[in-house]
Structures are given as C-alpha cells and as structure tokens.
Design a protein that fits this description.
18% strand; seven-stranded mixed β-sheet; Aspartate Aminotransferase, domain 1; Aspartate Aminotransferase, domain 2; alpha/beta; 2 domains
Amino acid sequence: MIVRITLPARSAGRVILTQGCRTASRVPQRVKSAAMRTSAITNQFTESVIREMTRVANAHGAVNLSQGFPDWPAPMEIKEAAARAIMADVNQYAITYGAKPLRMAIADLYRNRYEMQVNPETDICVCCGATEAIISSLLATTNPGDEVVIFEPFYENYGPDAWISGATPRFVALRPTNINGTVRWMFDRDELRAAFGPKTRAIIVNSPQNPTGHVFDYNELRIIADLCVERDVLAITDEIYEFITYDGHTHIPIATLPGMADRTITISGLSKTWSVTGWRMGYSVAPADITLGIRKVHDFLTVGAAAPLQEAGAVAMRMPAEYYESMLARYTVRREFALNMLRENGFKPVVPEGAYYIMADFSDLRRSEAEDDTAFAMRLVKDIGVATVPGSSFFWAKGPNNPGRSFVRFAFCKQEATLVAAAERLSKLHA
C-alpha cells in the first residue's frame, strides 16, 4: 500500500511516498511521538523524495527514470584500479582529507582544464560524495542565524543542509523564460540582489543544474560574483555535472571569475562523470583557511572516504580527453531520444543545457485540475510503469502555489534498452 503523508509547515510542500507498514498492537504509553523523540531540525524536512521514488519504482516493477544513476557499467580501467588497490591491501584508513595520489590528480585536472592553481596539500578535502562535501562546507562556514541563498528549483539536499547547519535558506526563482525562441531557466537580477541581506553568508550555485539542466553562462555568473564580492559572501558550488553540457554551452567555474578565487568552495566528484554513484567519492577545492575548517568537519562526520576507491579515483581523473568525448556523445544521444519520447507522449519538456535531467510540463496529460505532480507521478509509476520525480519536491512553496505542481523530472542517464522500454510504456498514456 502506498501512503501519502502531508509534511510539516516548513517542508517545502513536499510529500513523502512510502510503503505502509504494520504497527505494533500495543505501544507503551510512555513512548513519545516521533516528533518529540527526534530533533526540531529533522522535523523540518523529509527523507529524499528522489530516493523514495526509486523504492516505489522497485515495488511496482517500473522503469526507473527518477533517480539520477547511470545503469551502464563504469569504465573498466577504474574498476580494475579499485580491484588492484583492494588486492594490494589498500584497505585501511587513507589520510583523512584524501589520499595524495587523488589530491594530486584533482589539482592537475583543475590546472589543465580551468587554469586554477590548487595546492593539493592545503586546498582539497576528499569527502564521501559531493553531497557530504556540501554539508561539510556549510557546517564549516556558517553560524546559526546566517542566511544561505539557493536558486530554485533546487536539488533537494540544499534546504536540509542549510537547516542542519543552523542557517536559513533564502530562495531565488529560476523561471522558464523564452529568449529568442529558446526556453531557459533564468533568474531576475533584482530578486537576487534583494535576497542578499546583512545576514547572507553564502550562495549555493549548482551548474549544470539539477533538476533543470540550466548551465549558468558567464554573464549570469558575473552577476552572482559581483554580489558576492560586494557583500562579502561565499559561493559554494555544486559542479558534479561539469563535464556534461550540450549545444555549445560550457561549464565555467565561478572560482575563475575576478575576485572569486578566495571566496569560492568548488565541489565536484566522480559519481556522474564515471558512472560510480555508489562509490560516494567527492571533494571540495577552496582556500587553505576554509579547507582547514572543511577538513575538521569532514574528519568528525565520516573520518575519510574509501581508501581503495580513492586510488581508482586518481586513475579516473587522469583518463584521456577521448573518454569525456565519448561520455558526452552517449548522453547527447540519450537526451535527444528522451526529448522526442516526451514530446510524442504529450509532455512539454524544457530542453536541458547540461546534466542528464529533463523537467517536463505534464499539464496536457492531467485527468483533472486536482491532479497535482505527486498524484500524476504515482499514476505514472503504478498504471504506466515509469517512475519520475514530482516537480514540487524541488521547490519551497506549499500546495497549489508550488511552481513545480505541473512538472515531473525525468533522468535519461540510462541504457538505450531502458529508455526504449520507458517509451513503450509511456505510449499507454493515450490508450
């Protein structure tokens, strides 16, 4: 049985979809409610809707286009490197903030690709995924009462990360905007300026962006950078999709803009580019004083990332340019297939400029005005057999005012056979 639970007032209007469970027949009276037994912070948000939709997909045997993990094998070179490291007994703790070969490889990649000067001894912290790098960065740099600016729609971790850090998120809208016949997710510069107040400590910039696929161009980044310099604000960037851009769009690290090298925490990782989301291998690049704080938090959160996988990560980051070219070609073909699939079946997708997600408007497929994104996503997974993510989970507002109410997000980082199966099932929407 699938149960829909309305969340607390500060839950960004999300619902959590979970399988029902049997409760004990006798509960001692002295046992407090869950809200009383857990911290006030954890009662401000739910578990991940994205990862919950994977569980729902598995329960219904659906094609999973909800969670953003590639379903093809990782490169043989890095799997072999991991196996060699394990067999060579690289199985004990690495240096807490990252094995030296991986830190050297990260520094070399940033120098060669972006002309960034990164000291591998002082400027890098290897974490258990980019996700951990983000929360470690926020805990290392914010204080209770600080504010963190976040563009929405946003990857759902950012709001809870801010709350866990004691900071308050301030959201700035990205809206689908028609520019010379091309729809892009754009922010209003006056709204962004208004969000920067006396308590603003940091802004999170995710580019290429999840869930929209928006790639912030130089002009947009310059507006953000100028505000950061003017207001003495840090930029915390999530650049995990940096190698996946389309149609001439290019990823630009905001750290390379004037005045930003000393106030940017650049975060990325291996998960998406090398198809190893389960390895949980990410890192931060930041000035030495900030990195010291991140390393302290990371040390007491997780101690360190998996030692043998760090050895394999060093191999991954030194792979030749041909690897990136073939990887991007693979995603380009799948993006076109997914866009055509959605258009042919009544969706109105916004073409992503990067990453591997599509936000698609399903308004023309609603059974009634009362069918919101969550109800539609559940109908899709149960009746059609395709799992997506309700668009509202990427926005802050509650109820009918949530801008994501007419959207669902599709992930196209899947094998051709997976996408073909999804297309066949989506055609049943018109049966």
